[in-house]
Amino acid sequence: MAGSTPASLTADAGVAKTRAYSPGREAWRRFRRHRLATISAGILLVMITAILLGPFIWRVPINEIDFTARLSTPSMKHPFGTDDLGQDLLSRMLYGGRISLAVGFAAMFVALTIGTIIGAIAGMSRGWLGTALMWVTDLFLSLPQLPLLLLVIYLFRDALKATFGPEGGVFVLIVVVIGGLRWMPVARLVRAQFLSLREKEFVEAARALGASRLRMVVRHILPNALGPVIIAATIDVAAAILAESTLSFLGLGFPPDIPTWGRILYDSKDYLDIAPHWALFPGAAIFIAVVTINFIGDGLRDALDARRVI
Predict the structure, then answer these.
(1) Which among 106, 164, 261, 280 would be 20 to 30 A from 224, CA to CA?
(2) What are phi and psi of 88, to 5 degrees?
(3) What is the pTM (predicted TM-score) of this model?
(4) Distances from the Cα of 235 to the Cα of 112, 143, 307, angstroms
């Protein structure tokens, strides 16, 4: 009897250790093993914090004109220098960063919502509906995105400006258009996941217990299909930031008095030889944001894919 106590303690410890396992904790451990993803997450967090809190610390107005300081190089008074009107680039970068990142995340949400709904319907459908939805998806994939994007913005920009205001109208238009042209890869990915998961044993068990199709999708299939969807979401954020910057650089994005990163690049193109800092900082911000988000997507892919050995 005396020797039974250590055995019991060992068994209890094993049970406790088993109960302490968490899929979320395991995914976080696997994500931390990806050093580039961890470093990128830290850099992106610092960038977002600076964009959100920076205007409360650096209180220089974005439209304050000082012709005596026009095209000034970076200094203590103007850490990022000034533009051709003497406006402080740091304050304009902080303001524009909020718009650029907001466009990226909002467009990602639109693409993710539309793609998940269409992919789930196509994946659960066993008749003509799923095939028709995939035909529509392939049709949208075959369209040239940039010319279509430019055409839609050219046609509807003035109407939305009159409805939501200069800034709100362009924001709604860019988010809807970019998100509306980025849902197709998500839909195909979700459909493939649903086609695989709907034949699994736990789905058959839920069906045998009388679960409705909606309950099976929401409670059983969709949570198990979110891993690849989350990875696709990071790619969509980076693509949306690049698309907004491209539109602003082409002069079809936000109005000139709203300094997004792409708009600042557009304004600096005629002064590259005498004021390279004007283009350097917004270009570096776009580059860092896109690269860090892509590395975070790589880390999430490794963390959420249980078949990968890390």
Answers:
(1) 106
(2) -70, 125
(3) 0.78
(4) 11, 19, 21
Tokens at residue 146, please?
Answer: 């940039």
Distances (CA, A) of 309 to 17, 33, 121, 292, 301: 21, 11, 33, 23, 12
Nearest alpha carbon to residue 145 among 180, 102, 101: 180
pLDDT for the residue 1: 46
Total residues found in the chain within this entry = 310
CA–CA separation, 54 and 95 (whole Å): 9
20: left (phi over 0), alpha (psi -120 to 50) or beta: alpha
Residues 298, 304, 307, 309, CA torsion sign: positive
Q: What is the pLDDT of residues 151-166, one digit of tens each?
A: 887 787 777 777 777 6
d(CA 107, CA 239): 9
pLDDT digits (tens, 9 = 90+) for 113-145: 898 888 888 888 777 887 888 898 888 888 787
Q: Which amino acid is at 310?
A: I
Q: Is 48 exposed, middle or buried (0-12, 13-18, 19+ CB in 10 A)?
A: middle
Over residues 261-273, the pLDDT tens digits come to 888 888 888 888 8
